[in-house]
């Protein structure tokens, strides 16, 4: 029994020494991994943030076009006093956009608005008026 103990004791020491060397070689690897993960998250954020801002602005432009068309249609129907395309321009400005085209055909108003966001021109068209007769 003693023979086995003597024989395994140096082997255990050698294995312990190898583990210490391995641990020393891996020292600081967690910090490198953390820096890499933080860098990747920042890169994704830098790419996605402007894209999401443009998507949100696109929704705002569509809402401004709808509001402008409704304002023009209300004015054309006589519900509100004024000039239809001026009412559309005012409604679009309140939505942060500018009217580029406005047409009124009877009670139906068609409006096109545009807004520049991060160098991109976002445009939207809308039509408003009474429902079609059956």
Question: How would you summarize this macromolecular structure in one to three sentences?
Answer:
A three-stranded antiparallel beta sheet has the order 1-2-3. Helices cover 63% and strands 20% of the residues.
Q: Overview of this structure, please?
A:
The protein has 3 helices and 3 strands, in the order αααβββ. The protein has helices spanning 2-25, 29-77, 84-94, and strands at 98-105, 108-117, 120-128. It is rod-shaped and about 90 Å long. The termini are far apart.
The computed structural class is alpha+beta
Strand order of the largest sheet: 1-2-3
Strand content: 15-25%
Measured on Cα atoms, how large is the radius of gyration?
A: 34 Å
Give me the strand/helix succession.
Answer: HHHEEE
Helix content: 55-70%
Number of helices: 3
Mean pLDDT: 85
Q: Shape, please?
A: rod-shaped
Q: How many beta-strand runs?
A: 3
Low-pLDDT sequence parts: none
What summary fits the major beta sheet? Answer: 3 strands, antiparallel
Distance between the first and last residues' Cα: 104 Å
